[in-house]
Amino acid sequence: QRLEAAKKILTSNSRTLALMTALQQEHVKKVEDAHGLIDLKDKEEIMHKEIMDSVSLADVSLSNIMIPVKWCKIEPAKYKADCLKYQLFCLMRCGTQVMDSGALVSVDLTTETVIIDHTFTLKDIGPDFVIDLEFYYTQTEDLTKQKKKKVCYSEVH
Predict the structure, then answer these.
(1) Which DSSP state fits 36?
(2) Which residues contact 12 (CB under 8 A, 6 or more apart)?
(3) Over the stretch 107-119, which tens digit does the pLDDT of each residue have?
(4) Distance of alpha carbon 137 from alpha carbon 91, whole angstroms
(5) What 3-state DSSP class applies to 69?
(6) What is d(CA 105, CA 108) in angstroms, rounded to the nearest whole number?
(7) 28 vs 95: CA distance, rounded Å
(8) Cβ distance 156 to 69 under 8 Å?
(9) How many CB atoms lie within 10 A of CB 8?
(10) Coil, strand or helix at 113
């Protein structure tokens, strides 16, 4: 339950930041337009935006994301398969649209590929879109239960 709550807070925070950034950019444009503060580079950007606004928008879906896992500084033979367990989720960002992968995915030392089965659907996306995928994870088992006191470091790539 704590993991789900943390995931929801992180997703909400990301959505808020994306919307605040969009509002700030819109406010800056209005101030520049009102005071005539437009240089040559900004004129090129405005022309590019006008061209992009005339282009049709589309819906984009992203599904079946498969990420290979590389365990760093861990020798799997020294640990039981269920010794180190992680829960992870994916946060997808495109402009002001922010979505999470829904269910948490379990990962342990035997995992070689993380599969996100969730389908992300983006609405009204222009041709110059950029999608950012962020993966967040946390360890779910306590390492202190092990007899060895060796600290393990891992990264999910």
Answers:
(1) T
(2) none
(3) 888 888 999 888 9
(4) 11
(5) coil
(6) 10
(7) 17
(8) yes
(9) 11
(10) strand
Nearest by Cα to 109 from 144, 138, 71, 72: 71
d(CA 31, CA 48): 20
Residue 53, both tokens:
């606004």
d(CA 103, CA 117): 9
Distance between CA 41 and CA 22 in Å, rounded?
A: 20
Predicted TM-score of the model (pTM) = 0.60
Q: What is the pLDDT of residues 32-51, one digit of tens each?
A: 777 765 555 666 676 666 66
Closest to 11 measured CA to CA, from 67, 88, 90? 90
- CB-side exposure of 44: number of CA atoms within 13 Å? 3
Residues 79 and 151 sit within 8 Å (Cβ to Cβ): no
User: What is the rounded distance in angstroms from the CA atom of residue 98 to the CA atom of residue 50?
Assistant: 25
Q: Assign 93 to helix, strand or coil.
A: strand
